[in-house]
Amino acid sequence: MDRISRMLSGIEKDRSNMIKALQLVQDEEGYISDESISLIAKYFSVSPVDVEGVVSFYTQFKRNKPGKYQISVCDGTACHIKGSTLVKEWIREEIGISDNETDREGLFSLQTVACLGCCSLAPVISINGKVYGKLDRKSLIKILKKYKRGDIV
Amino acid sequence: MIKRIKVGTASCGVAAGAEEVFNYFKENVKDIEIVRVGCIGHCYAEPIVEVETENESVFYSRVKANDEYLKAILSLDNKFRHQFPESRKQKECIKVTRLSGRIIPTSIDEYMENEGYEALKKALRLKPEEIVEEVKRSGLRGRGGAGFPTGLKWSFLAAKDSPEKIMICNGDEGDPGAFMDRSLMESVPHQILEGMLIGAYATGATKLFIYVRAEYPLAIKHLKEAIKQIEERELNVLNGRKVPIIIKEGAGAFVCGEETAMIHSLEGGRGNPRYRPPFPTDRGYKGYPTAINNVETFANIPIVIREGGDSFARIGTENSKGTKLFALAGDLKYTGLIEIPMGITIGQIVYEVGGAEPGSVKAVQIGGPSGGCIPEEHFDAPVDYDSLNKLGAIMGSGGLIVIGKDRCMVETARYFLDFTARESCGKCTFCRIGTKRMLEVLERITHGLGTEEDIAFLEDLGEKVKKGSLCGLGQTAPNPVLSTLRYFRDEYVNHVVNKKCDALVCNALVDIYIDREKCIECGLCIRTCPVGAISEDYVIDSEVCTRCNSCIEVCPKKAISRIARENKSGQS
Q1: Which of B187, B370, B548 to mutate against chain A (most A CBs within 10 Å)?
Q2: Whole-angstrom Cα distance, residue B185 to residue B494?
Q3: Do the bridges between strand B237-238 and strand B241-242 make them parallel or antiparallel, or are there none, so unpaired?
Q4: Alpha-carbon gap, residue B36 to B101, rounded angstroms
Q5: What is the tens place of the pLDDT at every residue in B89-104?
Q6: Among B36, B207, B233, B352, fewest CB within 10 Å belongs to which?
Q7: Whether A131 contacts chain B with CB within 8 A
Q8: Choosing among B286, B401, B402, B427, which should be mutated to test the A contact, i.e. which has the most A CBs within 10 A?
Q9: What DSSP character marks residue A109?
Q10: What angle is formed at CA B95 by the lines to CA B94 and CA B99, rounded to 5 degrees?
Q11: Which residue from B175, B268, B415 is facing A17, i.e. has the nearest CB?
Q12: Do A59 and B251 make contact, defined as CB atoms within 8 angstroms?
């Protein structure tokens, strides 16, 4: 049994479970590799291109290995008018990465997301799922520095 | 006597620090029960703590995890007590969110103590067709955006003779700026599930799906726990027929909020919409008849059944019944989740419920990327499905963003189009390429390189994209552009003719300026500037400057500001 089949054991081999399977694999490995795609295709008895098609359609799925801390900058409407573009600029200044990039140490990666649903605290970001709101440059940099130093794990 | 202490730990509350408050209280208070609840809608005041005593509830806002707050709360001190804004209280009409933030979201017992599942019990004593009739009589229309009558949709599904019938709850709240459904799923999952079970009984649905955005982990967790409790008590056994409830997580595609796209996504494929007819009630999930309703619609159902359709229909206007939730955010004081009766005016929402400063507001954006901007002069329009359509906006799912005087409408339109252009699934040419072309033109305009012909081009192409697209995404994608062109044309003209952005938002039309009268030469800006654009004698090189505002933020004397760029040629 290959590693994907082990990971997916218990999931019915019905195509309607493919997105769930991809989510499981990504949870486990952080991204969807070429190898995972062919193994998932085998599992559901579909062609790899079918799986690739689904992966490329949904923004949730990543094809590159992300950093230890995944920063999601919310660019929902409220965050946008409250300066999410600046937030991204500040992050770029502080750790030198733009959208969909990972820094050289593999510590941070950055992505823009449509809306985290915390509009009344705009602008917000989340780092590995923890949401930080009402950001200005100072508070943002303070948060990033904490992660850099390893104060927050 | 304090009975228990409730800490609001929905996503907004957590982001504001409610988790720390909860843990601190839990550690330091031993003899009083401390529980997590959902969202009471007053997000501006998070973290919020409610103290239940024998005869009243006392609220504390902006609570911090320290001894000072804890002492004040335990002694029911007036200090830090939250005063709910009077004008908001008067205008709101709390029905659907009655229990939101007041009960433990994942406690079925507490839900039942508060009339929970009574509607289901009542429904099971009626005939299925009587329930459909009741929902029809209530005038309830779909809360997801388009406003299709719920009772009618149910009657279509009920009339189908099929071995499998599917009912789906649409919790794929993809509009940026909307969080009503998240809040309901996190705070009152049982209320939504009760609505779904009533729907399953009324229509004969054999399987229930909830499609939730993966970005809402807390909502998924609460729904899962609630479903487990339902199964333990066999509440999903409807007249001897067991109906499974299955959660499906979305994977971050806005178009999956469209019903045919959602069905494809549930089937495990790419979320491309398809042509209708056949409508999902004829051919849906795996070919079976399928009805899709929004989270908020389902949350209304227990109220309809408990109170009766006629009573429900007493609130609202002729064609829009009941209450509506809005996620109120942007440039105003009382951001949060509001519930208002249909028919109150936009102005009442903005100023009385939201507490926006009179004179500070330019427009509201309703309905997200599919909606439009409504200017202040139309704030007397009532909030109902038809009036909003007439103004070029839509009810949408209920995101309501207040746009202040210092925002640029061209940039706002560009923002929405950037979103829809990225989210277009690529199936229809006009949506795939048309939105991209419109976006390019808007980018040109915000960079000061637009021409007057560009404005006419946007209008023309916008109409064509609407007509040439198969699903709601393309059909409504031009709305933010067309509605701002309708009401804020002068801003577009100002950008293309005078090369000016009066709101000082569009970077290419703005310079950063240091007022030497106010400057104390402290050097903070020079040290802060990430690109080294500020010289030792405090002059900013506008070719190097990225207009990131870092210097403005750090200046202790507020001597630095954005000003209109003099150079008329613009910059790319």
Answers
A1: B548
A2: 44
A3: antiparallel
A4: 9
A5: 999 999 999 999 999 9
A6: B233
A7: yes
A8: B401
A9: E
A10: 85
A11: B268
A12: yes
Residue B456 near residue B421, CB atoms below 8 Å: no
Cis amide prior to B105 (ω within 30 degrees): no
Tokens read off for A5 = 């089949």
pTM: 0.92
Alpha-carbon span B517 to B202, nearest angstrom:
74
Contact (CB<8Å) A81/B269: no
Rounded to 5°, angle at Cα B199 from B41 and B268: 85
Strands A125-127 vs B33-37: parallel, antiparallel or unpaired: unpaired
Contact B331/A81, CB-based, under 8 Å? yes
HEC string of B222-269? HHHHHHHHHHHCCCCEECCEECCEEEEECCCCHHHHCHHHHHHHHCCC
Sign of the CA dihedral running B186, B191, B197, B199:
negative
Tens of pLDDT, residues B552-568: 989 999 999 999 998 64
The residues near B109 (Cβ < 8 Å, ≥ 6 apart) are none
What ipTM was assigned to the predicted interfaces of this complex? 0.84
The three-state secondary structure class of B502 is coil
Residue range B137-159, pLDDT digits in tens? 999 999 987 899 999 999 999 99
